[in-house]
Design a protein that fits this description.
The chain is mostly helical and about 80 residues long. It is built from two helices and no strands.
């Protein structure tokens, strides 16, 4: 019974080793062609402009200050 368990364990490890070797062989067989195409559009995305974020941040701060100032009660 113990020998059957050892054989099963060795078979499991051997199968795992063979599968890892096959996966490595497949990964080395991949095509090494890399095609990188970087294009820049002038005026495509409005949210990619830095001035939009600056104006949006200023408006947010003004609204935040107005809400915080208007919340206080004067007796």
């Amino acid at each position: 019974m113990k020998s059957l368990k050892k054989i099963s364990e060795h078979l499991k490890y051997s199968l795992a080793f063979v599968m890892l070797c096959m996966m490595q062989t497949i990964s080395f067989a991949q095509d090494k062609k890399v095609d990188v195409n970087i294009t820049t559009d002038k005026g495509g995305n409005w949210y990619a402009q830095p001035w939009v974020w600056i104006v949006g941040g200023a408006v947010f701060l003004l609204l935040l200050v107005a809400l915080m100032r208007g919340n206080s009660n004067k007796d």
